[in-house]
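Marked as duplicate of an earlier ticket. Keeping the data here for the record.
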Amino acid sequence: MQHLIAHRGEPEHWPENTLLGFRTVLAAGAAFVETDVQLSADGVPVLCHDASLLRTTGCDLDVC
């Protein structure tokens, strides 16, 4: 059995790891969405692949 899995949503059209990106790929037929969850320094879950926000937001801030 094969499944379509969307990695970080639909980053070509929406910011990665966003609800909009997840909804788009699920509506297009993806069975699953894979994402990255990290804990911030104060223990808050953050959906972010990188250790820094630089690539996705332009702000050079660490996630953890």
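See parent ticket for discussion. The mean pLDDT is 89.
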